[in-house]
Specification:
The chain is an alpha+beta fold and 287 residues long. It is built from 7 helices and 7 strands. The protein is 47% helix and 18% strand. Strands 1-2-3-4-7-5-6 form a 7-stranded antiparallel sheet. Helix 4 packs parallel to helix 7. The longest helix is centred in the first third of the chain and has 59 residues.
Length: 287
């Protein structure tokens, strides 16, 4: 039957077709036109931007507050560290402040300062007596410059000339930048009392050093405000040549007495003052 059907062309069946496997390269195909509307993308972009802006508006103050609080705590932490270092430094310094047994004994002895104050008071009294004695010696001397005589005596004091107390009487006392005419009576704790003539500027020519004996000293220091008698400040007058004296920019002629000779100090200073004034007077009389 199958044969006859086949012969008549009426046979039924499934025709088989040979299968071929394609092996070709994949070539990308460009799409010159957008697959989605540009208006659609723009609308989405605007929507997303608005959403982000809303988030920033909501979260911005919160973030700012968080940053501010964070900065505050960072600053506070730094300050705590600085204070801690300072306290540690101060503690180390305080631990180094110690007194010796001698210093502890002195700091507990109030009578030392009270006695010192009493002595300074006695020096003030002595210098007050000397000022009273100096006044008539100057006032009767008509050859002294008027501007010098017109200024009254002055007593002053301090606590720290080379670390030690001092008392000073200036009379006469004429001081300007370029001209000086003064006699200074000086007490220096632990050292001496002294009487000093100080001349500068136009007054240098009103005085001669030739008549003074060997107990007077002359300063050759460039600093005219030093009062100690060490070798870098004063030398005995007789050791200077006339040429050396002429080259001095100021005159400081002085002599001193030890504090061990306390009872003779006042007379020593008064006699020294009179000797200085007499020599100034003699120069004035020669002119």
């Amino acid at each position: 039957m199958d044969d006859s059907n086949m012969a008549n062309g009426k046979a039924k069946g499934t025709a088989l077709t040979e299968t071929y496997i394609m092996s070709s390269d994949i070539v990308p195909i460009s799409k010159p036109l957008p697959t989605k509307s540009s208006m659609y993308n723009q609308k989405n972009c605007i929507t997303n931007t608005n959403n982000e802006i809303k988030k920033v508006a909501k979260k911005g103050p919160i973030n700012e507050r968080i940053i501010s609080v964070s900065s505050f705590f960072i600053t506070l932490s730094f300050l705590y560290r600085v204070v801690g270092l300072l306290n540690a430094h101060n503690s180390s310094m305080m631990s180094n402040v110690k007194l010796s047994s001698t210093e502890i004994e002195l700091v507990n002895n109030a009578s030392i300062i009270l006695t010192k104050n009493k002595i300074i008071g006695q020096v003030y009294n002595m210098f007050g007596n000397l000022a009273t004695a100096y006044l008539p010696i100057v006032q009767i001397n008509k050859k002294l410059p008027e501007e010098v005589v017109a200024i009254s005596p002055k007593i002053s004091r301090g606590e720290n000339y080379e670390g030690l107390p001092w008392v000073m009487l200036d009379y006469p006392r004429y001081f300007t930048k370029n001209n000086v005419f003064a006699i200074r009576t000086y007490f220096w704790w632990g050292n001496f009392c002294s009487i000093t003539l100080q001349l500068k500027g136009r007054y240098l020519n009103d005085f001669s050093l030739t008549s003074f004996n060997k107990d007077w000293f002359l300063s050759y220091n460039i600093n005219e405000w030093q009062h100690h008698f060490r070798e870098d400040n004063y030398m005995p007058l007789h050791q200077f040549t006339n040429k050396e004296i002429e080259n001095l920019s100021f005159i400081k002629l002085s002599k001193k007495i030890s504090l061990q000779q306390w009872d003779g100090i006042e007379l020593f200073l008064k006699n020294g003052f009179e000797e200085l004034i007499e020599n100034i007077t003699s120069i004035e009389n020669e002119q």
